[in-house]
Amino acid sequence: MYIYSATDIRAWDEYTILHEPITSIDLMERASQACAEWLQQYQQQTTTGFVIFCGKGNNGGDGLAIARLLAESDHPVTVYILEFGHKGTEDFQTNLARLHGSKAVIKFIPAEENIPALTAGDIIIDALLGSGLNRPLEGLTAKVVKHINQSGLEVIAIDIPSGLMVDSSSIGNTVITAQHTLSFQCYKPAFLVAENESFVGHLHILDIGLHPNFPLEHPAANRWINQALVQSIIKPRNKFAHKGTYGHAAIIAGSQGMMGAATLSAKACLRSGAGKLTTHIPAVGYTIMQIAVPEAMTYTAGKEYIELAVDLGKYDAIGAGPGWAQHDTHKALLESIFQQTTKALILDADALNTMAQHQQLLERLPRHTIITPHPKEFERLFGKSANDFDRIQLALKKAAHFKIIIVLKGRYTLVATPDGLAYFNSTGNPGMATGGSGDVLTGIITGLAAQGYTPSEAAIAGVFLHGLAGDLAAAYTSQESLIASDLVEYLGDAFHQLVL
Ligand SMILES: NC(=O)C1=CN([C@@H]2O[C@H](COP(=O)(O)OP(=O)(O)OC[C@H]3O[C@@H](n4cnc5c(N)ncnc54)[C@H](O)[C@@H]3O)[C@@H](O)[C@H]2O)[C@H](O)CC1
Ligand SMILES: [K+]
């Protein structure tokens, strides 16, 4: 599934109108019906009515159609139309004429003194501006939005909270703060960044039946990692398989006091289907590893932390970094790993911090290495970004420059590939913001890469399975109680859900 820009969404609209074919006003009706149905399901016993704020573009047109549909179902509806000093789009006008025949109360806001007082119990619907927004809100529009935000009432945004840019940062701008956003057909870039979370609230993507052929003809660089995509990657296991079929992985991890990172990575690697696993750990962790993960072979190098890595050429995938802590020897260790790596390499945690301190290491990264930084680690590696959109662009730039895959962890984890594609993961929950969660991800991606999945396949499927295991675990134990070991426990169920 693609994540389209505002321009692409408009093109999809036009494509649907031309090829279904359907008139623009009927398409608006379909979108509005989907919203009205959602709202009727959602309204509470305490809801006294709907107050709908409309602009004069097609977002406002949606608002007017929603008003009519709700009024037809006997809900008290008041509509406020913000005077922009023009007549409004054709579909806006058609819907205004249709609304005049209904029981909805229609009022206009030509000036600040006409901004209405809002009463508790009403649900506010924001249909002021949608994907046609091309500049920050100002003047009367900004005042109306601030008034709505200050009311403390429940706000439901249609398509996108008014004032929020679809494709670029809205930091510092006046934007509707919605509790729910009802958007159409596909995810938009604005919904995927942490800086917009407080505006968007709970997101609901409503299917309005835009033409299915458009995505086939218009691939986009931004993509959504969902079950269908991951199902197309993960292959059923071969009936004649033996452990050699699924590769030999190595996990180079752990130090005194951080052997948990190593055992979590190791278990996750094995639970992701790697045929064999050898852990490279310091001597202090030998017994811990042998007892915690009896399925793994263990090679010790260094006393309290890993000092060297040998004989790595035989591995199909190597995961390195979890629980290393910071030691001077790690620069040489990384150089040695880079030299010996012949296939996939996954770097996380202290391996990334070492690279951040010795930036020249970045230039020596083997091609198609996967790095899995969280935003702070990313910043240490590549510098600060002014906003989340810039950070995504920087990740794509660095992925292309170093020919690596960058997994930038977050609510919608980004997988940036060297060929300029940005995949956003759909699974996961805040319960996974807990120690060891990243170590599990390193193990999963290493385990998948060892089986022969390409680095981008391993990264995409890995982040999805990791998040899905988190969702299944949270459903069982709650987000609060979720610990990283649960992610390992629920990986099996996550694979089950893929129904191979
Ligand atoms: N497939 C779909 O997603 C469908 C979407 N629909 C709805 O249509 C809107 C987009 O409509 P459009 O008329 O293009 O844009 P707006 O309603 O957002 O209004 C644009 C209008 O406003 C002017 N403008 C832009 N920025 C500002 C500003 N800061 N202040 C004031 N005015 C501004 C701009 O110049 C235009 O004149 C989409 O969001 C959906 O809600 C359809 O209903 C069907 C399918
Ligand atoms: K809106």
UniProtKB/TrEMBL annotation:
PROSITE patterns registered for this protein in UniProt: YJEF_C_2, YJEF_C_3, YJEF_N
Cofactor, how bound (note): Binds 1 potassium ion per subunit.
Cofactor(s) demanded: Mg(2+); K(+)
Keywords: ATP-binding, Isomerase, Lyase, Metal-binding, Multifunctional enzyme, NAD, NADP, Nucleotide-binding, Potassium
Listed GO biological process terms: metabolite repair; nicotinamide nucleotide metabolic process
Binding locations of K(+): N59, D126, S162
Assembly, per entry: Homotetramer.
Family of this protein: In the N-terminal section; belongs to the NnrE/AIBP family.
Protein known as: Bifunctional NAD(P)H-hydrate repair enzyme
Organism encoding this protein: Paraflavitalea soli
Source organism phylogeny: Bacteria, Pseudomonadati, Bacteroidota, Chitinophagia, Chitinophagales
Gene from which the chain derives: nnrE
